[in-house]
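Limitations

Structures in this collection are predictions, not experimental determinations, and the ligand pose is part of the prediction. Treat each record accordingly. The example that follows, with iron/sulfur cluster as the small molecule, is included so readers can see exactly what is and is not provided: the inputs are given verbatim, and the output is the predicted complex.
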Amino acid sequence: MPRPPFYADGIRFECQGSGKCCTSRGTYGYVYLTRKDQLRMAEYFKLTLKDFLRRYCGKKDGHVHLKNPEDFPELKNHPVSDCIFLKNNACSIYEARPEHCRTWPFWPEHMSPKAWNKEVASFCPGIGKGKLYSESEIREILARSEE
Ligand code: SF4
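Predicted complex:
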């Protein structure tokens, strides 16, 4: 029988508005967008999908992602490692934000004790606070991340 995951008793998490997960670090260099994200965000900006993709997105290994600040001359004073939509530690497009952001911190690549401690618990102030996510809720969120 497989061993229960380290989150078998659930994990408490509540966003504290630190904006830390909106800053690229090491391998976490991009915010990826699903097709649904692209359509929702294009509508939010009142752009056609084509224009939204041209203005805000790039592609890596076949996956669409948000461009980084250096791609926008008007963002020359924006911290280079911050998401283009992060303003004063808050997401300026919160209602339209991508699934990648909605599913933080429960990303498949975080769900080993080592990765969790290194990539999440050590710097996200929302861990251990607020709502208790049960194992099944975490699994549901992980499944969404993998869509
Ligand atoms: S889109 Fe919003 S929530 Fe997602 S990384 Fe950028 S600022 Fe953060």
